[in-house]
Every structure is written in C-alpha cells, then in structure tokens.
Amino acid sequence: MILAPLRGVTVRSFREAFSSVMEEMGFTEAITPFISAMKGIDPLSDRELKNGPQGEAIAVTPQFIGKDPDELRRALRRIKDAGWERADLNGGCPFPMVRRKGRGSGLLKTPENLSRMLEAGCEEMPGGFSLKVRLGVDEPSELEKLMPIINNFPLRFLTVHARTARQMYEGECNKEALERICALSKVRVVVNGDLPVVPFDGANRETMVGRSFIRLLGKRVDIKEFLAKYVELSRQEFGCDRPVLGRMKELIAYWREIPQWSRLWNVVKICRTLDEFKSLL
Asked: Which residues pair with 79 in a beta bridge?
C-alpha cells in the first residue's frame, strides 16, 4: 500500500511522526507532495528531500510537477546525485490554476508533451519512474486515448485516480472507466480514489491511499500523543509557530465530521497561537 501525496498534509514531519502507524497499517511506500521541476528551483532545497533517501522509516518517492522535459531531467539528475533512485510525475493535480498552465492534469491535454515528459523521466530514472494521473480533465474517456502513448514507456507503475480533474474530489469514482484502463495498460496499475485503507482492492490491485487514511487517524484513541509529536517535529522544521499552526488546522479539518472532533474543530479553527492549540491536546 502506498501513501498518496496530499499537499500540506503527508509531508516529511507527518511521515516521521506517524511512521509507526503507517508501518502497522501496511504502508510500504510514500509519494511526497509534489516538488516543482522548474527553472531556478533546486529540488534538494525542498523540505521533503532534506533527510535524503535513507532518512525515512518507509521508502519515499519524490513526486515532481512541471511541463518542461529539460527541467524535469535537470531535477532528476540532481536528486540522483543525492542517492534517490525513484521519482513520480504528477499528471493528475486537478486544481485549475495548475491545470491551465499545462502542469498536473493539464499534461493530459498535451499528448506530445506528456510523451516528452515520460521519455525524460524513464531515461533519467530507468526502472524507477512512475506516473500518477486522472481519468481525464473533462471526460473519463480521455486517459483511454492516451494509453498508446503511456504504454510506450517502461514505467514502474501507473497510478489512476478514478475521477476527472473537473470533478476534483467530488462525486463518484468511475469504476468502469478504471477497469478499461487496467485492461489497456501494459504496466502495473495502482488504484486511487475513495479507497479503504487496504493494501489491495477487490481485483488484487495495489492501492494508493490518502484521505481515507488521514480520516482514520482522527478516530485513534492515542491520536493526541501523535499530534504532539507532529507539532514538535513541525516546529523543528519551520523554526517558528505560525506555519505549524496552519499545518495542524489543515490536518484536523479532515476530522471535523468525526464526533470526538466536531466540537473541538470549532475551537481549533479559531486558535491564533500554537500554544492555544497545544493546550487542547
């Protein structure tokens, strides 16, 4: 089972704080929240990669977002020099401000550029490059039309979130469209989208799980102990309180419908200082 990348949530400090829980539940790998493959950005300066490939409890794969194959090559060479052997390409981010720039799910609208990005990734990370996508931007049939391109490359695996980008995270996953992709794919398919925290789905396919795992954490009786550790690690990471408080609010927002957190969420969301938040733990 693979931990899905959730920007602002499944970050390095989170993975460190909850490493024992992740191992207990069967996670064997985590994909980092995306890192920009853009001119002037050093991927090794990103907080996600500062521990190096040996500094995490479970295997971690850096995920990159971008649209320039040359910049992707540069970023991958940089992390290879630091010992990283795997990378993932974000071809699924649904947010319009990303998509409209041709990044994330926007790559699904530019088949030639998608091909060049996959070529760059597979050449720079032979055997260690993967792709995460949506079923399409507007229609769930779009990915099907791109499968001849994707099948040209020796990807480590293909992760499919079974929604379109337009759906964001709303509505039902399209299981029929997902099945068609699985039938067409020449590489291993990892399934993503509204899945329980289980290593394999009903068809024995590996799963990538994010939001369901985060929500499950809120039901643990020992969650406040883990939160205290997460606060401390985040404080060490940032060196100040304000971004730590924002990070905690972002996590707990996932729990606001859980009975033991629903009332507390109303207090958490108006906390102005980290000390106020810590007093609730």
From this structure: none
